[in-house]
Amino acid sequence: QGLSESPDLEFEYSDTDKWASELSELYSYTEGPEFALNRKCFEDEFSTHVSDKKWTELDAAQHRAHAMRLLDSLEVIVREKRLKVARAILYMTQGTFAECSSEAEVQYWTRYNIFLLLDVGTFSALVELLNMEMDNSAACSSAVRKPAISLADSTDLRVLLNIMYLMVETIQQEDPADKPEWKAMRETFRAELGSPLFNNEPISVTLFGMVTKFCSGHAPHFPMKKVLLLLWKSILFTLGGFEQLQSLKVRRRQELGLPPLPEDSIRVVRSMRAASPPASASDLIEQQQKRGVLMTSSRLQALIKQDNLDAFNEKDPYKADDARDDEDDNDDNDNSLETETFPLERDEVMPPPIPHPPSERVSFPKGLPWAPKVSFVGLTDRYDTDTVVGLPRPIHESIRTLKQHKYVSIAEIQMAKEEEYQKTPLSGVSTMSATELLYQGILPSLPQYMIALLKILLAAAPTSKAKTDSINILADVLPEEMPTTVLQSMKLGVDVNRHKEIIVKAISAILLLLLKHFKLNHVYQFEYMAQHLVFANCIPLILKFFNQNIMSYITAKNSISVLDFPHCVIHELPELTAESLEAGDNNQFCWRNLFSCINLLRILNKLTKWKHSRTMMLVVFKSAPILKRALKVKQAMMQLYVLKLLKVQTKYLGRQWRKSNMKTMSAIYQKVRHRLNDDWAYGNDLDARPWDFQAEECALRANIERFNSRRYDKSNNNPDFLPVDNCLQSVLGQRVDLPEDFQMNYDLWLEREVFSNPISWEELLQ
Prior knowledge:
57% of the residues lie in helices and 0% in strands. By secondary structure, it is mostly helical. Helix 12 runs parallel beside helix 21, helix 21 (486-521) crosses helix 22 and helix 29 runs antiparallel to helix 30. The termini are far apart. 33% of the residues are buried. Residues 293-365 have low confidence and may be disordered. It is found in: Cytoplasm. Its main location: cytoplasm.
């Protein structure tokens, strides 16, 4: 069965996967034996205080009393004792699974115990312990000297990060059955996480610091997968997901007096259907062999020319697209149209086309999914569009259509206001939202944070080759003793691949969330982050990621479902065999990998949209054949973002490319939003738009630096604009440090400047 006949992927894009999947991805399979160790530590602590009952049999007061006892024990000086107590708390956040008989019961007790631990103040204590472990120089120096780092080197950090992740992930999950006090606790916790309450900075800034410390080589034992997962969920919880972003955008447009959005983009994308991908050369050969049809190239070309109109009028925009898609990585060949082939969909040699009535022959799309827009990015409305007296009726209709579809973005308003604020510095005041607090926290080191995330993404990408200078991201998955049997090696291989996939998932989600929230908060915050991603080679990195067999990546089976939490602690584990590991699960696709691919495509769109120089980078790096191969994934949202990336560069790919890829052009027309003043399908402005990457980026950087300097750099403020202290008492009460030579000659100064000068006090008082 060819790829063009494969079914649509039943994938629904969301902020996260199912709660159970997000919990299970926290643990590597190598950590499996630690579940029993956590249970033992809890039961040892529990039995000393409550001997005759189970945890699930106690009342609320007894639960609270024991949680308080554990919290007090966390403050002991002895490291081993502290780790045992932390493991006991971790067992509570894992739902005291030994007393449960089903996964649903584990999830209930997980939720109950976590809200209990939050209520007694556990999270603050965990942050203090995390800071202490981060600054543990002995552990850092020991890890640096070790030739091979394993799971054992990060035990303390892993336990703390596990508890913190489980708390954040569980508390952010809203449930209609939640008690009113739980709902209040959730909102309080959300505000605390996003404010500089812990360590005088938002928790996300602390975690970013761990990422850069790890990438610098000073702390190679940091369990980076857990750090990135906690960072992602902290940002998601404090700033909000894609649904909250959409509602926030609607509210922000109302506040600025802008017309409402023409549609809800989330709903539009969810209602779109995937198109069939282009058939590959191998598919065509296989079909021809099955039918036993032997055709000469001249006969085939004649039939193609004869049937072109039928092919281009089919409803499916991808069916029978360029068949050389897999082989032709260089789309600059001028003879590509001559060799274009279409799949043979009938069982016999294609007869001449049967004439049909025009109504049956031509099939137009029922309706475009997006309302068209017209926007003038970087331009101003210099012309009068209101005084239309005496103009012909068609001009009236044109102006009305223009106004009806004209789209003014929040970013345009923000840029215009920033120009005014540069002239009147005292007028621009920023509101303290969670996004604003996070930007202020990461601003001083934002370039380093972006480089660190991309370094880890490169190390986790399946297309990356192992290099001696690349960072080791497997510190929290490799066991102390390497496997000795084939089965153990296969299990570790699955674990390592799964580990890398989860890291890619977390980083792609972090980058996308930050870009979207910063763009809504202020466009220059978004541009600052985006520019540093571009400078750190994010565009070629993402293209390198997609330069693989993307269908294999999306359908990869790097999971062992019987070892996933909580299944592994509730059910008896069957005996694993090499055959069962190779077979994997029965899922049609891997949710996290498809989620990662869509996120990376969205990031690429964010970086290149309305940026001519960055669009030309897509052309220079020959992204078109790479992106076309990604269209084979039959998922509407992924196809949409691939088509957007192809749309922005079609005019630069040449007329021959457009002729050879009419199916792709048709799909772009059907699925991507139209802009009335965008000639994407033509090459009209090639001569007028030279590619000057440096000039464009420098102009943008100057605007960003002016914005950051005005809003955040207090040291460079103009003294004329600083408030003046007119209170005599506070002015005289200020401590002034005088130079040493002045203090030694103070008597001389008094004599010369005070006593020797006659002062007319009467005139002074007047």
